[in-house]
Design goal:
The complex is a heterotrimer of chains A (305), B (327) and C (511). Chain A is mainly alpha-helical and 305 residues long. Chain A has one domain: MetI-like (MetI-like fold, Orthogonal Bundle). Chain A has 16 helices and no strands. Chain A is flat. Chain B is mainly alpha-helical and 327 residues long. Helices cover 68% and strands 0% of the residues of chain B. Chain B is flat, with a radius of gyration of 25 Å. Chain C is of the alpha+beta class. Chain C folds into 3 domains: 188 residues, D-Maltodextrin-Binding Protein, domain 2; 151 residues, 3-Layer(aba) Sandwich (D-Maltodextrin-Binding Protein, domain 2); 57 residues, no CATH class. The longest helix of chain C is centred in the last third of the chain and has 16 residues. Classes of the chains: A mainly alpha (305), B mainly alpha (327), C alpha+beta (511). Chains A and B meet through helix 1, helix 2, helix 5, helix 6 and helix 7 of A and helix 1, helix 2, helix 5, helix 6 and helix 7 of B.
């Protein structure tokens, strides 16, 4: 498959040399500028997280900290085992949720993408409807805590996000664009739908699957809402919920003169907020680098054959 | 829903099957044809049922004066009373307009931006560079909206803002950005693109890289240049994804991004003329009351309007190409 | 607009709501509707155990006490709980379980627990978090009118009946009041060195315009913006009025108005002149161009770039606290009379849940924690010798151990704050002073009145949404001469109707 890309490149290069160069230059220039616009604020966040609060209010945001301070990190890491534990919880939830979610969603999406499935339209509607209408917070809470009895159960961190309407419909669109002739040929060869799904549909859709995997991963990684609703056991706190809690607690402490006075007004609110970005991005950025190869042209084309 | 049951009836009776077969044999035929698909859909459909449909009767809260000790069903009905405040003010028109206008802007610019970046990314041939660009664009998604609001303030504050400092150095009169609502649609669009385009472009890029390269080969032989290829191959093949994502966005068009409109604008009253949207309006009105029934009523209104719009949009799509429609 | 720059506490509530992912539903139902009697047993969603009356020679019960804490749970929480249990088992024949929730998420959590009818006995409640009135309206709390005088006589007698009456809803009491400073005597705090340098005679300052020359001198002389944040200048008490039903925001009653006439303060001449003053100060550059939330001005203070800030001047010697936070020597000056309002009294309460295992045991706990100093201080600051030591036992001054493993700093949350030991020798005697302020404060003509908002809740919401837009600050802010137009808009949204309903309820309440 690598050979194929190479041939494409060579041909295009020979026919449009000058134009292609200008084109590529423009493409890269635009992307470099936009990347910088995206990257610089991240550096500012990092720098701010390593500054003192007073320095920020006096000198504004700078690319390098003016007055270096690790107070924010010390505050967050005051109990390191609590952060570690939250990372473990979130990692397990994220990995399990992404694997199961991807399986469940692609099966569902495949079925409603096939024209020969009589229920595909009503099922699509059934799924889409939930994007718009929901019972609201309190009925959801009562149902989960009283009927399902999933309070303080790690399953509640996973199950509600297994099926995302948005991702299912994205996958459905991708499956719909599979060439029907190819699938028919497989059917004539005696393949049943399961085999077609696993041996043709899945391998031919890796980029979209990787996209959905990424989004699913992000939704698990970034979630604190389920924890807020259903988790009281501190050993089941997810990382985002823990960070959220630390931040909310800080805001509350800052707003209460008795407490703020106890810390001499030194609660590092702003810098802690900045440092949280680091804790939130770190591991997921790592996973992202791994998934990224699926979005780069030339990797998956070969699997067609 | 009449629409879907109609289409179900149409396809459920296989064309050309003998009309007088018994119910059971028809069921068996149906299961033979659809059983595998039904099994495939089962786990997902079941989860949707449990976590979305089972609590859904709670929608009645919008018509109730909820009392915890009486429970959802025991609480008194209040008819449409919870909806009153949504139409009671002279602001409603402005709020509706802002919500629709800003969300339409976001859908258009967000889609165009994401496709644009995806097309550019697709032309990057160095793998390493590609990864660097993509990673960089991915980061903003992780910066909390509160931190974003700090940066926007650092840019735009009157006395120390970066933008005003630049303006001053060029001898231009500095602006009080937080008192000038006319600029905020643009500012919010920029923030929205900045935050979402990196992730948004991945969807389109994933579709683009799945396009069969033979199409481009053939086009090149016919003498098509890059722009022709984009126009006649890439964009047409992106239309199904664009359609689906737009339909989904239309469904949510009456829900505004609270973080963007409330936190990034710092809830500045002077900016309300262009930035006050349903979610911020409802939040302001109910901050003191915290009435669950009224909150539910606002949510239900947003859902119903979104639902009507999406049904209309879907009908239009169906007229053009039934297979690209949502349902 | 006193609501525009939210107070710190309001901001807390807001922060909680904001983060609830747009699901505002996290709060209770309409404020003050008549609470329904006993929990209906047949209700399916809430299978709350009926409160049981403890039989004579009862088996020991365990009381579940729920409250929020700011810090991550104090490491010694368990140790203190154990020590408390020794006392409670001996004195009130009950065990106590402390259920501590994180402050940032607790108001959502407790609302859900209530919706689910989950078991607990006592809970922290207030008019600003875990809303007392919503809880009452939801039938979450049991009435205390007969229970407290019978079971907690010492506690009951520690406050006059008029104070207890102020926390009543529709004639019944549902909250055990934590005694603290009730009236807010609004005013400002200012940097001491600048007050002296530019000769602000605090004794001569009685209203906002009196500080204007000083503001000007500070701005010119120090080249700083005197107000650290845009101040909320119109606060009802400063103009000798009391807010009626604080949550609504724009209503007031004259402090000596025996007829208790509800007024929209936007229509008062005092408001119009304050509007002009605020506009003038904004244009003169006495305050920042943009609003920042209160608390965000601390670094500005620490950097010495602010000189004055509005302040509720909540208790004697509050300047020590302010000094620690702002890192500047400050002076406090109150410019409002001490007025006792409903909101001042319902600012911190303990509620008795409909799901309690024994209301008698819970009442005994309230008696113990409100009257027994050692027990109360055990809950506030922990164990003597381990978490704190005596500095002077005679005047009840203590010193907390550095980095104490138990340090909630929320004395006001648990019970009568006047029983707290002093943490600073300079504060000795301030509880007595505070009690004097409580006793001598003018009761608002509507003290104890709370509105049943149900009949006009749509109008209240609509007016709140409309007036948020009107502000005296900003380059395009309208002049006071345009106030009538704004008032018309308020009335179009239903302000008149709200006022009429309020008056109707006040008149009925007065009888």
């Amino acid at each position: 498959m690598a050979q194929q890309t190479v041939t494409i490149k060579q041909r295009s290069a020979s026919s449009y040399r000058a134009g292609a160069f200008m084109g590529r230059f423009t493409v890269n220039a635009v992307l470099v500028v936009f990347s910088l616009i995206c990257l610089v604020p991240v550096l500012l966040v990092l720098s701010a997280s390593l500054s003192t609060e007073t320095a920020i209010s006096q000198f504004g945001y700078t690319l390098l900290p003016v007055q270096f301070s690790t107070a924010a990190y010390e505050y967050i890491l005051a109990q390191p085992q609590r952060i570690m534990n939250a990372y473990v919880v979130t990692s397990i939830v994220t990995v399990t949720g992404t694997v199961c979610g991807l399986t469940v969603m692609s099966l569902l999406a495949y079925s409603i993408s096939r024209q020969r499935f009589a229920l595909r339209k009503p099922l699509s509607f059934y799924i889409f409807f939930t994007l718009l209408f929901n019972g609201g917070l309190i009925p959801f809470y009562l149902f989960v805590s009283q009927t399902l009895k999933l309070k303080d159960n790690p399953l509640i961190l996973i199950l509600p996000y297994l099926v995302s309407v948005w991702n299912v419909l994205l996958l459905r669109t991708s499956f719909q664009s599979l060439p029907e002739e190819l699938l028919d040929a497989a059917r004539i060869d005696g393949a049943n739908e399961w085999r077609i799904f696993f041996q043709i549909a899945i391998p031919m859709s890796t980029p979209v699957l990787a996209t959905v995997a990424l989004f699913t991963m992000l939704s698990y990684w970034n979630d604190w809402w389920m924890s807020l609703l259903f988790i009281n056991n501190k050993s089941l706190y997810s990382i985002q919920f823990l960070l959220y809690n630390i931040m909310q607690g800080l805001e509350a402490m800052n707003a209460t003169p008795e407490i703020a006075a106890r810390y001499g007004g030194n609660l590092p609110t702003l810098t802690v907020r900045m440092a949280m970005a680091f804790f939130a991005i770190g591991p997921v950025a790592f996973a992202y680098l791994f998934l990224q190869k699926y979005f780069i042209r030339g990797i998956t084309i070969g699997s067609l054959k | 829903m009449a629409i879907s049951s109609g289409s179900m009836a149409r396809s459920a009776v296989p064309v050309g099957s003998a009309p007088r077969k018994s119910f059971w044999s028809r069921l068996k035929l149906f299961l033979d044809k659809n059983g595998t698909f039904m099994l495939m859909a089962l786990p997902g459909a079941a989860l949707v049922f449990i976590f979305a449909y089972a609590p859904m009767p709670g929608i009645v809260i919008a018509f109730k004066d909820l009392k915890f000790n009486l429970g959802v069903w025991g609480s008194p009905w209040v008819g449409l009373n919870n909806f009153g405040y949504l139409i009671a003010t002279p602001l409603t028109g402005r709020v509706l307009f802002n919500t629709l206008f800003m969300n339409t802007l976001f859908i258009v610019t967000g889609t165009a931006g994401a496709i644009g970046v995806a097309l550019l990314m697709n032309e990057v041939h160095g793998k390493f560079r590609g990864r660097v660009y993509q990673s960089a664009m991915f980061f903003p998604n992780f910066i909390s909206i509160v931190v974003v609001s700090y940066f926007v303030f650092a840019f735009l504050s009157t006395d120390q803002g970066l933008v005003n400092n630049v303006l001053k150095s060029f001898g231009v009169e500095p602006l009080q950005w937080y008192s000038s609502p006319e600029y905020w649609p643009v500012i919010l669009v920029i923030v929205n693109i900045w935050k979402g385009v990196g992730v948004g472009s991945i969807i389109y890029l994933a579709t683009i890289v799945s396009i069969n390269p033979e199409f481009y080969e053939a086009a090149k032989i016919d003498g098509a240049n890059k722009l022709d290829q984009i126009r006649y191959i890439t964009l047409p093949l992106l239309i199904p994804v664009i359609t689906i994502l737009t339909l989904l966005a239309i469904g949510r068009i009456f829900y505004a991004d609270f973080g963007l409109f409330f936190i990034v604008t710092r809830d500045t009253p002077a900016l309300y003329p262009t930035t006050d949207v349903i979610d911020t309006f409802v939040f302001r009105g109910l901050r003191q009351l915290g009435d669950i029934g009224m909150t539910a009523a606002a949510g239900l209104t947003q859902s119903v309007i979104g639902f009507i719009l999406v049904i209309i949009a879907n009908l239009v799509v169906r007229k053009v190409d039934p297979e690209k429609s949502l349902f | 607009m006193s609501k525009k720059n939210f107070s710190r506490r309001e901001f807390l509530v807001m922060a909680g709501l904001t983060t609830a992912a747009g699901v505002l539903a996290a709060c209770g139902a309409a404020a003050t509707a008549a609470p329904t009697a006993a929990p209906a047993a047949k209700v399916d969603a809430t299978k709350a155990p009926e409160p049981t009356t403890a039989p004579a020679a009862a088996a020991q019960v365990t009381l579940n006490y729920v409250y929020p804490q700011f810090t991550v749970q104090s490491p010694d929480q368990g140790v203190v709980e154990e020590a408390l249990n020794k006392i409670t088992k001996e004195k009130i024949n009950a065990a106590i379980k402390l259920t501590v929730l994180d402050f940032g998420t607790w108001s959502d959590k407790i609302t859900l627990m209530n919706a689910g009818g989950e078991q607990y006995d006592l809970v922290y409640t207030a008019n600003w978090t875990n809303d007392y009135y919503k809880n009452v309206s939801n039938g979450q709390f049991l009435p205390l009118d007969d229970l407290l005088p019978a079971t907690s006589p010492g506690y009951w007698k520690s406050m006059p009946v008029s104070t207890w009456n102020a926390a009543k809803v529709q004639g019944k009491l549902y909250g055990a009041i934590n005694q603290q400073m009730f009236p807010k005597t609004w005013g400002f705090l200012a940097r001491k060195d600048l007050v002296e340098k530019y000769k602000l005679d605090l004794n001569a300052v009685n209203r906002w315009p009196d500080v204007e020359p000083w503001l000007d001198a500070v701005k010119k002389g120090e080249n700083i913006i005197p107000w650290g944040i845009q101040p909320a200048l119109y606060i009802q008490e400063i103009f000798s009025a009391a807010p009626i039903d604080d949550g609504i925001g724009w209503t007031q009653v004259g402090k000596d108005d025996k007829s208790a006439k509800a007024v929209n303060y936007w229509t008062t001449p005092e408001f119009a002149s304050t509007w002009d003053l605020g506009k003038k100060w904004y244009d003169a550059g006495y305050m920042p161009k943009e609003a920042v939330k209160s608390g965000d001005d601390r670094p500005v203070w620490a950097a010495g770039k602010a000189a004055i800030s509005t302040n509720p001047v909540t208790k004697p010697h509050g300047e020590f606290e302010a000094q620690a936070i702002l890192k500047q020597e400050v002076v406090l000056k109150s410019i409002s009379p001490a007025i006792l309002t409903t909101a001042g009294i319902t600012a911190t309460l303990t509620g008795l849940s409909r799901t309690t295992v024994s209301k008698e045991a819970a009442a005994k706990w309230l008696e113990l924690i409100n009257t027994d100093k050692p027990t109360y201080n055990l809950l506030c600051i922990g164990i003597e010798g381990k978490h704190w030591t005596w500095v002077d036992k005679a005047t009840e001054v203590i010193a907390q151990v550095k980095d104490s493993a138990y340090n909630p700093s929320t004395d006001w949350m648990f019970a009568n704050q006047f029983n707290a030991y002093y943490r600073d020798p300079r504060q000795v005697g301030s509880w007595d002073e505070t009690k004097k302020i409580n006793d001598s404060a003018t009761p608002s003509p509507t003290l104890g009145f709370v509105m049943d908002r149900t009949p006009v809740k749509n109008e209240i919401a609509a007016v709140a949404a409309v007036i948020a837009e009107y502000t005296m600050y900003g380059p395009k802010a309208k002049a006071a001469s345009e106030l009538p137009k704004m008032i018309d808009a308020m009335n179009a949204a239903g302000a008149t109707k709200v006022l009429a309903e309020m008056q109707k309820q006040i008149d009925a309440w007065k009888k």
